[in-house]
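Question thread 4412

I'm putting together a teaching handout and wanted feedback from people who do this every day. The idea is simple: show students a protein as raw sequence, then show them the structure tokens that encode its fold, then repeat with a second protein so they can compare. Below is the first pair exactly as I plan to print it.
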Amino acid sequence: MALDATSRTRVWAHLMRISNFGSIDITKADLKAAVDATDDWIESAAGASAPSTGFNSSLPQPFRGAASAQQKTMLFCFVALRRAGLLSVAEDVI
């Protein structure tokens, strides 16, 4: 099941906070668009025998061109972990 807007925003905030994600020459809005695109891609790929586009191709520019392979993998993993209910972030504790 796709993430709701709150969960997408929390993954985005988490990615901005973690130190080992590294720096990328993009805006916060660019990173948010990448989180949204990742969740959309996972959702579309979940029901298909083969996704229509590869994950990298689904990422919006400038994130796709600016992020390293490691950063793209971390983005995918954090979104997937959140979808599975396995990623808790600071905003979850109130």
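The second pair follows. I'd like the answer to focus on this one:
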Amino acid sequence: MAGGLRAESDSAIRKGVKERPTDLAVNGGRPAFAEPLHVGRPNIGDRGRFLERANAILDHRWLTNDGEMVHAFEREVAAACGVPRAVAVCNGTMALSLAVRAMGLAGEVIVPSFTFVATAHALLWHGLTPVFCDVHPDTHTVDPARAEELVTPRTSAILGVHLWGVPCDVEGLQAVASRHRLRLLFDAAHAFACERDGVPLARFGEAAALSFHATKVVNSFEGGAVCTRDEELAARVRLMRNSGFAGIDRVVAAGINGRMTEIAAAMGLTSLESLPRFLEANRRNFDAYAAGLRGLPGVRLLLTGTSRAHLVLEIDEAACGIGRDRLVDVLWAENVRARRYFHPGCHRHEPYASLYPDAGARLPVTERLSGRVLALPTGTGVTPQDVAVVCSIVRVATQ
């Protein structure tokens, strides 16, 4: 019986696997997937638990404005991140924007260009000058040595990004910050459920901005949070997210509407309950990709953060015989919606390309990575059979 089940399983895994160049859709073969296989397809928790929470929200007729669902979500996020305070907001960009504002930053802030463009936008919107820093080739995170070279009398802070959930060199960045009396905060949008030596990444720096966008390992449809150990900083963020209201009819500061809704918090709580299942799927898929791509010249599988929420390859055209962009075309023809994260780097998007036209000259690693990095589908919407098929496409395309 066991042997029969194993044979059936192996047969299922082989279904749709590409074996020769003529099998590829770009060469006239049938696409491997009938429906698109997306990067970042949302994880969905227990529908029943979510609907119970949604019904409770409707019964209580409290839909927004700092309700009990938001309070509960904040408590759970703070506990998961090992911090005393988490302030929930409407999205990850708002979390970073409020953290920057609450810290009173001014002048220049050193930040990687190899990140989602909203990281830079959150600075520019507050009148700050993003100074783009190169990253380490192995981790894709800010290189402290390069950051120190960029410090000027106008520098007020370093904003590190735990890209792919990979920890920044927090000690190296803190040493630079301490030597130059700079503030240190982190964009931890990729880093929920990620740790370094058992310490949640949201504990590092004066503040960490989280995202609970639909594509994240834990999602609240759309949402974010500021995590901090600083009680006063948390209070300022909480004040500003609520238009500066310090009571029912008393405004004490300029603020904005950055509140998380109750239904978003309900989804977040439901996601948190299902987090072990999400992580199990991510780790299973990562191991399957590692096995399926092992030994393939010119294809490096990045060891991403401990949540394994991102599946990231580096494609070396000289070694594997195909460029990253051509491989994307091959995969898309098969209905595998691979993504060129983060292409082409913030410094080549507007308005930064016009503001800092020479930035690329000091970003050789960023320039190289932006032409090599490829993200593949993972998460609960991806099966071992899907992984086997995707790996076969990559293997045949690089023959």
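Top answer:
Good format. For the second protein you could add a caption like this: The first strand starts at residue 37 and ends at 38. Confidence is low (pLDDT under 50) at residues 1-13.
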